[in-house]
Structures are given as C-alpha cells and as structure tokens.
Design a protein that fits this description.
Layout lengths: L1 H40 L2 H14 L1 H12 L5 H11 L5 H18 L4 H14 L1 H14 L8 H37 L4 H29 L13 H23 L3 H5 L3 H43 L1
C-alpha cells in the first residue's frame, strides 16, 4: 500500500511528461506542415530568385554607397582593402566579381568630395533600392500583406531606409574588419592557432552583421503594424545559420565539384554570384516564413496572457 502511495507522484510526473511530449510532437507536425504549405503557396523559391536578380542589379550602387559612406572618414583605396578582408566569407568566384566591381567603383569615387560626395551617395542609395523594394514585396506576400499600401513616397522612404541600414551594417563590419586585420598582423608570430581564432572571429562577425540586417528587414520591410524590435527571432536566427551554411556549402561545391567554367565560360563568376544571392535570399525569406507561421501562436498566447491579467 505504501509502495503504491510512493509511486503515485512518479506515475503522475511520467504521465505529464508523456502528455507534454505528445503535444510537442503534434505541434511540431502542425508547424512543419503549415511551413511547407506556406512555402509552396507563397512561391518562396520563385520570390527568392526575383530578389536575387534585383540584388545583382543593385550590387554596384550598393558598393558605391558603402565606399562613399566609409570614404567620409577614410580613403577609398583603404575602404577597398577592408572590404577584401571581410568578403572572404563569400564564394571565391563571386568574391572575385565583387572585387572587380569594387575597383571600378573606387576609381569612379576617388575624386568626389564635399557636396558632390553627398549627391553621389544619395544617388547610389536610391540606385540600390531595387534590392530593398524586391525584399519588401516578398515580405509583404509572406506576411499576408498583398497590397503595399504605403504609397510611392513612403514606400521609397522605407526602401531607402533599409539600404541606409544595410550600408550602416556594412560600414560597421568594415570597421570591425580593420580591427581583425590589425590583430592578424599583431598575432602572426603566435602561430596558426591565432590565425584560426581570427578566422572564427570573422565568421562570428559575419553572423552578427547578417542577423542585424535580417532583423531590420523583418521589422521594417513588410507593411504591417509595428511588432517591436527583436534582435534575434526564431526566423532571423535560423535564416542567419542557413545563410552561413549555404555560403560555406556553395563555396565548397563550386571549388570542389561544380565545373562552372566549362559550362558557362566567362559567365561563370556571374552565375556563381547569382547563385549566392539566390541562396541568401531564400534563407532570408524562409526565416520570414517561419516567423509568419509562428506569429499567430505567439499572438494567441499574448492575447491569453492579457486576458488573464485583466481578469
């Protein structure tokens, strides 16, 4: 009799644990089912291809905006050297094409000062808005806002704001890359371990910058009611990890298995860059889709908590 009494609490805990596991399993099935259905319904892969194309068209204006902004405090040639440091995370062929464009932008920007520099910067930011406008349109679809609704002027303002934020993130990364480059020079005598630490720090920096940029796009891109700023959400965290994994994976595939030169010839670098833009865009839109699927659940929990607080 005593044994049955002692075992009762254990049995109850076991039953609660099993019930919780069952509910978690059912919730997981429901979540993944909704996620897959939404990816298919919203044509996320097709939207990612469109975003990648407009990012490709916006590459040169965006590089110009970064160089002109950083050029306010540094020489354009110095900016180019710092970009070379941080761009090592990009697949080699894509990085080569970006660096070729970088040289052209530095050459064109070297003579601009004062008011001419400001005008050139505004033009460059506006030229890069094709990428942010495409991202905004895709996020509106994912979050169920089929109509942009903000008007041309407000939409352009938000689009340029996203580019300004992206440029700010890039400049922050360049400043941090300068510090990493200095540390690499100082720590060279300490052997290969120090260089490995610097390489790891470069990837951590890339992850933090990507997470900040993705979080900003999720917050300001779609035309929906303000939801509060989140540095890290489930979607942005997964999108950042997927972006890092896709970048490394694409780089390894291109260098080890993909013979793009034989197939595309002189266009191979363009194809690799477009592929990198595509996997990056897909990761970002997939993260937004995850947030969109999770949001109704979070909203219901918040409403229930508010109702309990008022009762």
């Amino acid at each position: 009799m005593q044994d049955e009494t002692d075992n009762a609490p254990q049995h109850q805990r076991f039953e609660r644990t099993r019930e919780f596991a069952h509910r978690a399993e059912e919730a997981g099935k429901g979540f993944f089912g909704k996620l897959i259905a939404k990816i298919s319904r919203d044509n996320v892969a097709l939207m990612a291809a469109g975003v990648a194309f407009y990012c490709f068209l916006s590459l040169v204006p965006l590089l110009a905006a970064v160089i002109l902004t950083y050029g306010l405090i540094a020489d354009p040639a110095t900016v180019a050297d710092h970009i070379r440091t941080i761009i090592t995370v990009v697949p080699h062929d894509a990085a080569k094409l970006i660096l070729d464009q970088l040289v052209a932008v530095v050459t064109a920007s070297s003579g601009k000062t004062g008011f001419g520099l400001i005008v050139a910067l505004v033009i460059a930011i506006y030229g890069a808005t094709r990428a942010s406008t495409a991202i905004m349109a895709a996020l509106n679809v994912i979050y169920g806002q089929q109509d942009e609704g903000r008007g041309f002027i407000m939409g352009t303002f938000v689009s340029m704001g996203i580019i300004v934020g992206a440029v700010g993130v890039a400049v922050t990364g360049l400043l941090a890359a300068t510090i990493l480059g200095w540390l690499q020079t100082v720590l060279t005598d300490l052997g290969p371990v120090a260089l490995i630490v610097i390489k790891i720090a470069t990837w951590i920096l890339a992850a933090l910058l990507a997470s900040a940029a993705i979080g900003g796009a999720y917050r300001f891109g779609p035309n929906r009611a303000p939801t509060g700023w989140q540095w890290i959400s489930m979607g942005s965290g997964i999108a950042t990890l997927l972006w890092l994994a896709a970048t490394v994976g694409l780089g390894l595939y291109v260098s080890s298995f993909g013979n793009y030169n034989a197939t595309y010839g002189s266009l191979s670098a363009v194809v690799v860059l477009l592929m990198w833009f595509y996997v990056s865009a897909y990761a970002i839109l997939l993260g937004a889709t995850i947030n969109a699927v999770l949001w109704p659940q979070k909203h219901r929990r918040a409403m229930a908590a508010e109702a309990r607080a008022q009762s």
